[in-house]
């Protein structure tokens, strides 16, 4: 939810499913292709992850910010953009939506905190696998394994700071929205 780019909110439910699914499917299908050298495996991963991940992301977006479904794509995008930038929303009728979306981001951050230990454990396992692949695996396996380690390390190092900055901007936008609506 917190990593969903603002432009995806402009899309309807089906569009969000397709956009999120295609991104995950292409990315992880490419990993399978590099690691295993298998086009068939890459296609299977692409299809399965595109369907499941796209559906999961769209449902999570709907559950975390249910009021978004009653808004136009342009309004959702304006709210998301203002909130993520920490700015006042241009249209005063959208101020309450900024407050709701800021709350949704905080709920997403709370859920994210619960997964940090899992990411740490997976990173340790990925390092062990990458070392093993370096010694015993093919070049493709070694490259894929170390890329996974780098992505997991980036998640552990980069994401907490980025999340904190995003939440600080959301707090500023929410405070501005509350002022424009008289504190409600």
TrEMBL record:
Task: Kindly list the organism's lineage.
Answer: Bacteria, Bacillati, Actinomycetota, Actinomycetes, Kitasatosporales
Query: Which species expresses this protein natively?
Result: Streptomyces broussonetiae
Q: Which UniProt keywords apply?
A: Membrane, Transmembrane, Transmembrane helix
Q: What is this protein called?
A: Uncharacterized protein
TM ranges are 20-52, 114-132, 138-159
